[in-house]
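Blinded run. Sample ID left blank on purpose so nobody reads anything into the name before looking at the predicted structure. Input follows.
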Amino acid sequence: MKVSDIFALFVPKDRKFFPYFINAADNLVDTAQWFKKLVTAAENGREEFVNQIRTCEKKGDQITHQIYEELNKTFITPFDRDDIHKLANSIDNVLDQIHSASQKIQRYQPRLPVDSFIAFADLILQGAIEIQNAMKELNNLRDQKEIMQACVKINEMENMADEVFDAFISRLFREEKDAVELIKQKEIISALEKATDAAEDVSDLLKSILVKTL
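Blinded prediction complete.
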């Protein structure tokens, strides 16, 4: 063991970041749940869910800003300060992509429901729940089992999302005769794919953090 590692064992680390990450993940799950309701809503009922997602997005920005502020005031962090910054940003990015998809639905008014949108909403919610599970275990990084399980499930979710995306795009260009509707749906499904990719980015970062704690 390096001298710096021995020294670190006796230096108290500020653990106030963990509640912020849990709050961010809880807010992400709320956002994903609202989005699932949005993609199954009738046209005259969509605005309520879009507004709820917008509220969650603003809350997510506030939590991320709080983490940045605490990071600037904290000398000893529970893990690498750059990783704390990246983790806050990556969770917020998932939320931003969901928000972007909801704005496109409101702006374009596509024909809904679309089965692939619903499938993506389910997968995004699954990914958000796994991020939430990982954040609850973040304060015990040396017991890595639960976080690694969450990361594996997030990666599985992203792989399934890729399959849904590829099948949807193939069917869309083959069957959709309305060019305007085709563009609308392609824009929305692309935003949803970015959300699942962003969730995988969280997983990749968590695995990197775990490696550094070994």
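Unblinding after everyone has recorded impressions. The radius of gyration is 19 Å.
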